[in-house]
From TrEMBL, chain A:
GO terms for cellular component: plasma membrane. Keywords: Cell membrane, Membrane, Transmembrane, Transmembrane helix, Transport. Its main location: membrane. It comes from Roseibium aggregatum. PANTHER family: ABC TRANSPORTER PERMEASE PROTEIN. GO terms for biological process: transmembrane transport. It comes from the Bacteria. The lineage of its organism: Bacteria, Pseudomonadati, Pseudomonadota, Alphaproteobacteria, Hyphomicrobiales. This is Lactose transport system permease protein LacF.
Automatic annotation (TrEMBL), chain B:
Residues 1-47 are annotated as: Disordered. The chain crosses the membrane at residues 57-78, 131-149, 161-181, 187-212, 233-256, 298-316. The gene is araQ_4. PROSITE patterns: ABC_TM1 (PS50928). It is found in: Cell membrane. The lineage of its organism: Bacteria, Pseudomonadati, Pseudomonadota, Alphaproteobacteria, Hyphomicrobiales. GO terms for biological process: transmembrane transport. It comes from the Bacteria. Its main location: membrane. Belongs to the binding-protein-dependent transport system permease family. This is L-arabinose transport system permease protein AraQ. CDD domains: TM_PBP2 (cd06261). Keywords: Membrane, Transmembrane, Transmembrane helix, Transport. InterPro entries: MetI-like (IPR000515), MetI-like_sf (IPR035906). Residues 22-31 have a biased composition (Basic and acidic residues).
UniProtKB/TrEMBL annotation, chains C, D:
This is Maltose/maltodextrin import ATP-binding protein MalK. CDD domains: ABC_MalK_N. GO terms for molecular function: ABC-type transporter activity; ATP binding; ATP hydrolysis activity. It is found in: Cell inner membrane. Keywords: ATP-binding, Hydrolase, Nucleotide-binding, Transport. It comes from Roseibium aggregatum. Its EC number is 3.6.3.19. It is an enzyme of class 3 (hydrolase). The gene is malK_7. It is a peripheral membrane protein. Belongs to the ABC transporter superfamily. Pfam families: ABC_tran (PF00005), TOBE_2 (PF08402). One of its GO terms (cellular component) is ATP-binding cassette (ABC) transporter complex, substrate-binding subunit-containing. The lineage of its organism: Bacteria, Pseudomonadati, Pseudomonadota, Alphaproteobacteria, Hyphomicrobiales.
Amino acid sequence: MAAATRPARWHRNISAKVAAVPMIITAVVVFIGGTAWTVLYSFTNSKLLPREKFVGLAQYDRLWSSSKWLISIENLAIYGAFSLIFSLLIGFMLAALLDQKIRFEDTFRTILLYPFALSFIVTGLAWQWILNPDFGIQHVVRSLGWESFNFDPLYNPEIVIYGILIAGLWQGTGLIMCLMLAGLRGIDEDIWKAAKIDGIPMWKTYLFIVIPMMRGIFITAIVLIASGIIKVYDLVVAQTGGGPGISSEVPAKYVYDAMFLSQNLGQGFAASTMMLLTVVIIVVPWAYLEFGGKRK
Amino acid sequence: MTKTPHLLKGSMKYDAGPAEAGPDRALRHGDGTPSGSRMVEGPAGRKPRKALSRRNILIYGTLIVVCLYYLLPLYVMIVTSLKGMPEIRLGNIFSPPVEITFQPWVKAWAEACTGLNCDGLSRGFFNSVKILIPSVILSIAIASVNGYALANWRFKGSETFFTILIVGAFIPYQVMIYPIVIMLREIGLYGSLTGLVIVHTIFGMPILTLLFRNYFASVPQELFKAARVDGAGFWAIYFQIMVPMSLPIFVVAMILQVTGIWNDFLFGVIYTKPDLYPMTVQLNNIVNSTQGVKEYNVNMAATILTGLVPLTIYFISGKLFVRGIAAGAVKG
Amino acid sequence: MEPSISINNLSLSFGSLDVLKDLNLDVGQGEFLVLLGSSGCGKSTLLNCIAGLLDVTGGQIFIGGRNVTWEEPSQRGIGMVFQSYALYPQMTVAGNLSFGLKNAGLPKAEIQERVNRAAKVLQIEPLLNRKPAALSGGQRQRAAIGRALVRDADVFLFDEPLSNLDAKLRADLRVEIKQLHQKLSNTMIYVTHDQIEAMTLADRIAIMRGGQILQLASPNEIYNRPANKYVAEFIGSPTMNFFEGELEEAGGNYRFTSGGKTFSLDGYTFQNGPPAAGAAWFGIRPEHMVSGAEADTALVRLDGQVELVEPLGSDTLVRFTTGDQTLWVRMDGQANIRHGDAITVGFDPARANLFDKTSESRL
Amino acid sequence: MEPSISINNLSLSFGSLDVLKDLNLDVGQGEFLVLLGSSGCGKSTLLNCIAGLLDVTGGQIFIGGRNVTWEEPSQRGIGMVFQSYALYPQMTVAGNLSFGLKNAGLPKAEIQERVNRAAKVLQIEPLLNRKPAALSGGQRQRAAIGRALVRDADVFLFDEPLSNLDAKLRADLRVEIKQLHQKLSNTMIYVTHDQIEAMTLADRIAIMRGGQILQLASPNEIYNRPANKYVAEFIGSPTMNFFEGELEEAGGNYRFTSGGKTFSLDGYTFQNGPPAAGAAWFGIRPEHMVSGAEADTALVRLDGQVELVEPLGSDTLVRFTTGDQTLWVRMDGQANIRHGDAITVGFDPARANLFDKTSESRL
Amino acid sequence: TDLEVTHWWTSGGEAAAVAEFAKAFDATGNKWVDGAIAGSGGTARPIMISRITGGDPMGATQFNHGRQAEELVEAGLMRDLTDIAEEGNWKEVIHPSSLLDSCTLDGRIYCVPVNIHSQQWLWLNNKVFEDNGLAVPTNWDEYAAAAPKLQEAGIVPLAMGQQPWQTTLAFQVLLTALAGPEAYTKIFGEKDAELAGSEEMAKVFQAAATARDMSKDSNVQGWNDATTMVITGKAAGQIMGDWAQGEFQVANQVAGEDYTCLPGLGVNEVIMTGGDAFYFPKVDDPAITEAQGELAKVMLSPEAQVAFNLKKGSLPVRGDVDLAAANDCMKKGLDILAKGNVIQSPDQLMSADSLTQVNDLFVEFFNNPSMTAEDAQSMFASIVGNAD
Ligand SMILES: Nc1ncnc2c1ncn2[C@@H]1O[C@H](COP(=O)(O)OP(=O)(O)OP(=O)(O)O)[C@@H](O)[C@H]1O
Ligand SMILES: Nc1ncnc2c1ncn2[C@@H]1O[C@H](COP(=O)(O)OP(=O)(O)OP(=O)(O)O)[C@@H](O)[C@H]1O
Ligand SMILES: [Mg+2]
Ligand SMILES: [Mg+2]
């Protein structure tokens, strides 16, 4: 009789393991390897090329005493919070609207999604014009007779980040909408019926039944949005170039500028290490809860 | 009739429905219905879908308003691309072109110069296609299989690798440029199309894997069990059960990747040679010249032209946005 | 009695498939109506129409005298149990039960109490904090019933609520539902495949076929005086035995001839007075046939050979052949009978059912 | 007989919930085993373990003499029908049926033929080109059965395959399954809640409770000689009537006293020879009680008052009280009896079942 | 031999200029393979560096001369051109000679300077001044004095784009023009923090504050948008490099008539010898090495220099060529160059890293009206003090 214990099982599930090889390589070699490399070089004073001239924490000192970096972080926090909330909110609401068996769904969906297809290098310019007080919306409204109308988000350091948000949402919500729509399409019709019988208003059905059922999609969307936020760069460059002044700087731009404009790789690496550290602090505990062993 | 007391007053309010209760009941018992038909007055048959119901006004109204917001920049871009430079320099950005000219479009497509090569966007078009197709297919294929393995065939350690992958989604691309240059150089793929396809696959992997993993996890387990009993292995289940049931999410993945890869400029130019440069290099060159006169109309035309391929794909793929996991296929 | 639910000329199609066709039905206030019918005949569809979950193609629906044809499901004052459960997967069982109530703004204590009561009735108290995914099939079904029960609606619609439960629990719940019905005296429409449920629960049974109602009558009537051959065949297990033959009249006395045998129909009461002679079906239920000593005294006797024996414990079902006819007979659970045995069975033609050959309706 | 399926000390837990506990079971080659048990007792879980769809926590599973504990489901040579249907929603019914065969690489013609055969048996030919979403509940279930049938596997696992079908179709399919079994003589494990199915189909029945098998025996044995009170109560509808009392011995003759009444147990055969006297349960099935004229000649007689009458058509179930005891009795379908009537019922104690008071096992 | 040359000259005029090099190079029997990538620093540079470090270098690449390429040279990735330079006697021909200095590391020459760009210009719309009853200013002080009047008339005195480099450019121009070339060289070249913080420099910062005030209503991003403001009369003037002239020409404006150009703000007429240079990565293929040498020679040949710079609108690096076709403003530039009033560009003097810090400072200064000139000065002094 064969052994009663569990056999060695490396060969079980073999296809799954083979299928996961690219992921494992990517995770270990590229992401871990690349990150380790980045962290290592953040302790050097590499300029144009990575060089092993270690300078301890000097790069970090400089990073945290740079007002540009501090403003970047602050902007990221504001932009991130609003962008996350509004992307999810608008994306979901649009998806819910499109899911009402409406006519011209394809057309509406494409309209909402098209900004995602256009590179921001130029659409940024279009937005810059539209928001320009001298010939954009403010100008139009004023010429219609409302003289005191004021709308110049990109030119006011106080609110420039919200101006960027307007364009950011314009570009990004379409994709979130599609994602949500895909999620909604996966929900059993009978659930809707049960909720209707229970007399649950539409919004509550969405809020308490459908959204929790779409947990996976929401997590995906959040990761998608959040990783986009962390990397936000061309949006800012195209619209304000970080201005007015440095009032719309963001960390990714700081990294990019440090690495390729100032040619101070070490500084860029230090900044990205800080960004990664933040991500790791937030993502790892969450990922542990979300994907950790607890479930079968 | 005696009405049983309502314990759930709130949820079952008996709104007096639109003018039916009184008169029709009288009719009913007057037996005034001719020739055995029991039809009486009041709502009957299919609920009429009024074109201008409150619900429709709300839905379409909202959508139309939102669409205006989404279309405004496109309008500006199109209008601008049809104007000549003097008109742009002096005119209102919202005003329609006085003299429509298609010259900017022609120029963007076929004449704009990139250094010495004056053949516009058309130059890189086929390179872009050559990059797009394998990259999209490979990245979606690998990520979806991966997500499927993670959702349905977990093995020890799979979640750890996945967590690393998710953290990887947050790494700014720029940081990875040099390490990847070094890696590609070491495996001898630097400068080749294969190398670029691999890079796209790597950077697409975190989000796509998450996308697929979470979607597949929502497919009822019993379907997966049934397929295993049916003798379907890892691949058969993937291709014949999971993929057909997950079309909407494949569409999303495709949208994500087609857009990302088609519009990619940095990787395309860093990891390949000039004869493989994608169309976006041209676009960048048209748009991003630091000095000299900016031809806004050409820029706008070029951008719209570049966006046409993803846009076409969005539109075509719309048909695949069917209901995914069909209702009631599974009980419980 | 004022009808609680009244359905007039209801029809419904899915595309070109007509599922319900000009259906009429009145359900009295407080009545317990059971819908029976073969799979795919439109029972669930009819319930969905009553609940307002499907838009009808034609006709009207009244609930409590109010025309609700175009009303929202939640305004119709109904509770419903779905065939596919449709539990909210991310809520616990308790959450599933209480969600509708919370939404109606009931006080917490009341909700708590109702949920507990339903949980107790359904024996799901220990499961209240589990999510549907961690329940067995039957447990899910009970949770789904619970969700409807707590609503105390005027009209309850049940779509095969007990089909996944074991006999004991089913019997318990059956009694519970019956008592509930008596206590609340609300109208109930109940779809089932289980004839025992149908017979014991129903005030009236509606037999459906192909989107139409063939017979709507009390259980007793349906069982003893089925309106047509389909109903006769559908009700009863094992199914009714049929002889194909000729109805003959001789001076006011009727006889039935089939395969060389002739039965006198003296005790039989015709549905609509004496019919014309002609081709007909003669049906007799397995439990109305007697065997052994009793058969000797029966009015009609048949000799046959046992083909199949199915001991059920409480009864034994025997299939035997006589001539070219195969018949079922139900015998005592202790009957000592074997494949191949020769038996004699008898019956009283007064208990038979006669159907016209062409129209298949009861004679 | 070489066991076809052999399960040794199988256990399975979901987290801290032990669903199966050290379960042992041998199923003979070609045997038809029915699993019966209350909802949530672990029947589906056991089937899933056998099929290899759940990784066991401990123990071993042999199929055809081969240790398959860690083998892939598809390598175990099984076919399975799921409680929740689990039809592939994007494939037509025909696609669902042929999927497994295509995977096995069968030739097209053969697939076609098998699919058609199964479709015919299950009466789903007109539905072959529909997708599951456009089927009624019962139609889906039939498609799910079809998917298992076409596989011609060595071992079939059925998880309540007939629970949503109407009685007529269920009876037909039951016979089909039985015939199929006889023809193919493959091993079948069948979970059901329907006792008629269990009794008619099974070679042996396994009664489960809380993840363990309480009794594994032939239907007849289970029905007539239940191993303990739980089994006795679980099998039979309405459920067995119980008297709580004392078993007394007087010179080799046993008597049972309960509520002032004493029954002689002369005809009763004890399970393990004469037991010690003591507290015990005395059980008698409703269908083993007689009424009317027959009651007069019965060995034990009880007088009571009718409390509830449930006419089933073929039978009538009557609940009556005698003393402080409530009992069910099954009577003829034509019995003319009413709530409040006084009746006398009788029974033969030889047909009774005695259970020890504490261990609840059969005496 | 095919030689791939990367550069970021993609606009019309630039491309035409590059074509001249290509033509000249092709004439030697080789083939110029064009690898243009628009967007200097941020975009093109990482690409070029990746190509070089990835082991798949181009044949030649444009780079801002200055200290940017130092590390590549130090890492041994760049070809030493000293022998070719000696053969071509570059030390003599290249004028001003400081251009070659920035190509030199440890006495070896690694790059070929190809042009000089001048930045120190003030562009004025004559009509705006005349319409408001003002004389067209001839220097910075007059211009600043006219500002309040212009502002009253609803005209933006100084147009300025929001991009960081534009503000920095403005400051550097103010510094060289008002404090003089010596001070500039001391501060950027010798990192004289003391001077940077001195009284003398304070007036530069005051002027910067004035400029900030003058430009506060300028709501545009691109430099050319700012130029358009000047052309259309919305603004009176702009501080910008010689490339702004192209915009005026496109709008059919005539120098001296419609607009005025004041080099060095009309105070100190100097020109910064910033410009572009070509580097040649080391390669194994001898044929390519050969072609690289050819290209280096071709680029400095007088014919190519003339043809190239005429198209490019910049000044040639050779003093011995004749530019008869140059326009008015360009001639002014040539004059200054001939007089030797040249300074080195900050690129050549300071590391990119420090320059970015300076950049950041002025971006902030120009956009934050609450930042005083004194604050800015002291921060500037500390950056200079720590610069390398
Ligand atoms: N995934 C799960 N996680 C936790 N508990 C589970 C899970 N699946 C089933 N259970 C529990 O295990 C027990 C056995 O479940 P199983 O499905 O085997 O019951 P069953 O005998 O098939 O019942 P039914 O007749 O109602 O289908 C139940 O108590 C159930 O709640
Ligand atoms: N969405 C749909 N599209 C097309 N046909 C449908 C759809 N839903 C149901 N049908 C068809 O309508 C008919 C009636 O279905 P219904 O669900 O009402 O049957 P049912 O009487 O409830 O059967 P069961 O007892 O098997 O549940 C069936 O033939 C079914 O195939
Ligand atoms: Mg149904
Ligand atoms: Mg089960």
